[in-house]
Each structure stands twice: as C-alpha cells, then as structure tokens.
Amino acid sequence: MNARTLVVSLACLALTPAANAVSLSQNGAGQALLYPYYTVQGENNTLFSIANPWYGRLGQFKAVKVRFREHRNGRPVADFNLYLAPGMVFTGMVTRNPEGRPILVTQSPACTVPRFAPSTAMPGWTELPFSNAAYAGYDRAGSGIERAREGYFEAIEMGKVYEGFALPNGKSLWTALQYAGPNLIVDSQDCGAVAAAWATGGAFRTSGGAELLPPAGGLFGMGTIINVPQGTDYSFDPVALDGFSTLPHHTAPGDMSPNLGDADPVSLVTVGNVAHVSTWNNGRDAVSATLARAKVLNEYIDKTPQLDAATDIILTFPTKGLHVVRESDGGQFTSPPFSAEFDDLLPAGQGASGDPLADGTSRGACEPIYMNRYAPDGRQNSVAGGLNFPGPFPIDPRSACWATSVFSFGNVLDAQSRTDISQYFATPYGWIGIEFPSPPAILTSREGHRHVGLPVIGFAIEKYVNGNLNGVLSNYGGTLAHKYFTVVE
Description:
Shape: globular
Number of helices: 6
Largest sheet: 8 strands, antiparallel
Number of strands: 36
Mean pLDDT: 87
Low-confidence stretches: 5-17, 383-395
C-alpha cells in the first residue's frame, strides 16, 4: 500500500455513518454547491462566485467541476474544471455576446481546463461560450442557443489536490496552482501545465487518480442577477451539500461525471429533532431525498393601483434530468419521485398520433402541483387543484413542467419558462404555498423511509418600480429564500 492509498483509507475510516451521508449544510458551505438560477434574458446578467477558504495551517488545494444546465430539461450547456488554491475565489459573469450567445466571462487568475479564450465581447476578460450540442435533437423543447439563456448550475468538489503529485515539468501540482499575484517577484502558477495534464497521454490521464485525495468540503459562494438599465440587483446563496462523496472523482472537462448522481448512496435528513439516515441504490436518489420538499412557502406581491410591483417564484429541480431520461433508442425512463415523461409527441387525435411535435413546442415533463394563496388576514384561497382551471397549451398552470419553472405575478426576469398566475389570485399580496401531491411524489429508501415531495430549490424575487423620481432611477428589488415543509414518513 503506497502512502497516498493509506491516507485515503484512513480518511474514509475516520468518517462516522452520519458524516458519510449527503445532507444539507448547516453553515452554507459544503462539497457541492447548487445555484438555483442564472439568466441573461432581457437585460439581465448573472454574477457568481466560488470560494475556497483557508483550512488549518496550509489550507487545501481543490479541484471543482462547474457545470451549467439549461432550464427546460437540465441538459448541460457549459462545463469546466476549476482548480482553486487555498483562499482563492473564482468570480464570473454570465452574459451575452453581440450575437446573443450566452458566454461566461471572468478576470479570475484561477486555473481552468479548458483554458478560457480572450473575450471579444469584453476586452481584458476571458470567456467560455455556451453550447446547444447536448439538447439539439435530444428533445422537442427547442434547439436554438436561446434556450441556454437561463437555467441553473452546480459546483461539485472532485477532491483535494495531493501534495506529493508531480507534473512532468518537475513542478508539483500544488506549485503549479499557486497564484502569488502580479506584484510579487515569485509567481509559480502554471495553468498551461495543468491543462496539458488532461491532453492525450497527459499526467491526469495516466495517473489512476493519484493526484487527488477525498473531498473535504468548505466551498461557498454567491450569485446575483443584475439589470443595470433597470437599476436592480437580486442576490442569492447557493444550496450547499455536505457529505457528498468520500472518494475523489477527477474527470476531464466535458465528462458528465461527477454529477448529482455520483453522490454516496446515503442521505441524512433532519426533521425537527429527528435525524433520518436512509440508504439508496444510487447517489441520485440520495441527493433527491436530501432536497425533497412536500411544500414550498413564500410571499408575493403583484401590481396594484398604488404600486407597480411584480414577483417571480423560481422552482428548480436539480435532479430532474437524472430521473426523467431519454434513452438511446428514443424511449424514456422516469423514476420516483417524478412521474411524468418529457412530452415530445403529438397527442391522440392530433395529426399522426405519436409523431414528434414541432421543435420548440414540447410541453415538458409536467408534474402536478397544488397552489394555495393566503391573504394577510389568514384567509385561504385554493388556486390550483381546487378550481377547474383551463389548461392552455403548452402549460397548465397546475403543473411544474421544466427543470426550472418560474411562476409569476407580473414579470420580473423575462423568463422563458414563466407561467403568469396573477389572474388566478384575487388579492395582489400575501403568501403562497405550493404542494407536490403524494402520491406520486414519494421516494422510498431501502429501510422504507418515505421522503415526500419533489427535490426542489429556489427563491422568490420581488420588484418595485417607481420610475424616475427627481432625476433618480427609483427601482427596487430583493430576493426571498423559500421556506419548506419537509416530511419523512
């Protein structure tokens, strides 16, 4: 047994059963960060950060997989490997180039693979363009690049960098990742050597994973949606997962792993003062159980005669694309807690039943939801499920159809996935409860624990428009974190 294998083995043995389980972080930092939303619709841009704080005397060098997913089916549109020295923070902005393609731009000194190219849209920055390759032809929800203009993204720690791993140029990987700053005489960073290690026959391709130790967690970050012409800024925190994996998982850029299905197959969900430890057949279900919510709660405000206001309620289902899968033969596979297949075919009685819909007209995979509105005085108005709403094509307002679904009172973000529900609510302000009926929304563990609801994250955005007051643009806005009911039976 070599020294590195011994270190990995001892690290795994030191973990208690509770630590060796996927759980929601209690301190906002973790091994995996889930950012519920990004958008470049309208005049919005999305800024974000991923930070690697110091730990102990030396700190930890980390390898992180960053992956952006579009809003309709959760298909990947951009990904890269990010290598962070201790104390380093990567900051980036998702924007659009002059042709309308979403791009990620940055001025961060952190090493990335692939290495970002000089930006033509923003001189002095580097950029990574988004791609439609993973969804064009995969479904009938639209093949154009505009589909990638909103969605969500994830940052998953692949592992800590092993101090003793050497690159062919004689530098240790630690040394090649260390950025000393442009004003210091010694700067050992060599991002070119790090990228070369992923080339055919490169050091990472032939190492057998010896360059990484198990993930240690501690990553944190932030996101903000900014609209400069409107003078608004909506900031939010990512959802952090602890105990994601006990093993290192270093893969090349473009590899679809690690993803949320590569977690350890154990979850830890605390309801009240009761901790439920559940085992699963795969990591996908462990993450879905950790994020399962029976009900989402938040406040809303709509336009009134006295106030120009609006609210967008964002629901993102980060594991939906792992449960609702199109197979190589064109068939589909849907697993609990999701129940709907992705609807790409003409319904019976419309043309040649079973033929594909026109591209861009898919209804998505629509999960039933119930909505209840509560006025400030506590009176309840059942909105979905209790009333006989019409079901206009392509979206029934009683359904959450996309990987990211936006329910709006008015319009804040110009979301493609937006369903306006203002007409169904008599009172223009109050709070709303969104429930996922059970069944079908249940995930049952090997022990028989029933995690009720769907795996969901998100927030609400409120906007207040006062226009130009005495020469000052007086628009306001803010984000409200979702509150939840978590039920384990």
